[in-house]
Amino acid sequence: MRISLLNLLVACTVAAGSGPVAADKAEPLEQRNMLDLARGFCGSEIDAVSAIDDKVLGILANNTGGLDPRVDVDQHSAFDKFAIGALANALQVGDMAVYRSHLANGDPISARMRNKSIALLDLVDCLWITQEDRAHLEEFVNWGIENGDFPSDMKVDQLLSATNMSECTRMREFDRRTLALDPDTPDIVDQVSAIAEDTIGRCEKES
């Protein structure tokens, strides 16, 4: 199993909130810093986060992605974007859980805290998978199947399960609208609940 497959599995487990995945007999590949890769996709958004919180950048800097020369450049780029986005999304989800907890409990929210949450959401939006990215990732999965690196029944939707669920529940819209509210509004809890009712949990169930 190669490092590129390890990165694929790690990205999936990060998105799903699971633990690390071990690779057996992994062949070492050139490692690229996820922070440097993220700057290539979303330089201004990284700068905005950097101006508020270096911890997030430290987490990205401490993670790397292997460069597999066998993989098509466009496919590799789409996968790199997905892997970085999965990590950024996990950080943003945790951040918003804290933000909403402060709102619900009437705890103070500083301008720095709110700006950090907005900057993280902007970064996640920038790294979000487009239809073109999705097509390249589907090609990447098919390539992995043909080369025996991935299970024969693997689908791109398995890789993008967290992305699909977030789009289905309109989580980014929920977060964006929540962050647009004045946290000092007396009925802030009711406003957040109304936004949640208008956005969350409207996924189309498979028949």
Describe the SSE topology.
Elements: H1 3-16, E1 30-33, H2 34-50, H3 54-61, E2 64-67, H4 73-105, H5 111-126, H6 131-146, H7 156-159, H8 161-169, H9 171-179, H10 188-199
Antiparallel strand pairs: 1-2
Q: Rounded to an integer, what's the Rg over CA atoms?
A: 18 Å
The general outline is globular
Sequence of secondary-structure elements: HEHHEHHHHHHH
What composes the largest sheet?
2 strands, antiparallel
**Cα separation of the termini:** 36 Å
Structural summary, described in words:
By secondary structure, the protein is mainly α. It has one domain. The protein is 67% helix and 4% strand. It has 10 helices and 2 strands, in the order αβααβααααααα. It has helices spanning 3-16, 34-50, 54-61, 73-105, 111-126, 131-146, 156-159, 161-169, 171-179, 188-199, and strands at 30-33, 64-67. The protein has a two-stranded antiparallel ribbon. Helix 2 packs antiparallel against helix 3 and helix 5 packs antiparallel against helix 9. The radius of gyration is 18 Å and the shape is globular. The chain starts with a helix and ends in an 8-residue tail after the last helix. The model is unreliable at 1-25 (pLDDT under 50).
